[in-house]
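Lab manual, section 2.4: Encoding a predicted structure.

Procedure: take the sequence of the chain (120 residues), apply the prediction step described in section 2.3, and record the output as structure tokens. A sample record is shown.
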Amino acid sequence: QVQLVESGGGLVRPGDSLRLSCAASGMFFRIGVMGWYRQAPGKQRDLVAWVTTGGKPYYSDSVKGRSFLSRDNINHTVTLEMNSLKPEDTGVYYCAANQGPGPIDGSDLWGQGIQVTVSS
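Recorded output:
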């Protein structure tokens, strides 16, 4: 059984930086696109950033210019670095991955979610 395990969340102050990591473990043939979603309190889950198997990242407007997403295909990990954090970055962050060739919004693997709180 494949699992996505997230780490790196917590409480940070506005303007700080944070790194979220996600590792796929278990038995799988391949991992396609990987990425991160965020669910703010009372809101739907939104895509934050995703990366292709070739390492090309895409960012939502909410984090573009202050985030960096990378993946390690040997260790099957994806890492999101966010800088200049804002209170609106607060939420539960979910790692997502697609075991097939489809897009990130067709992900069939999800992590448990990790809380990020940006507050002074």
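Check your result against the sample. The chain is about 0% helix and 50% strand.
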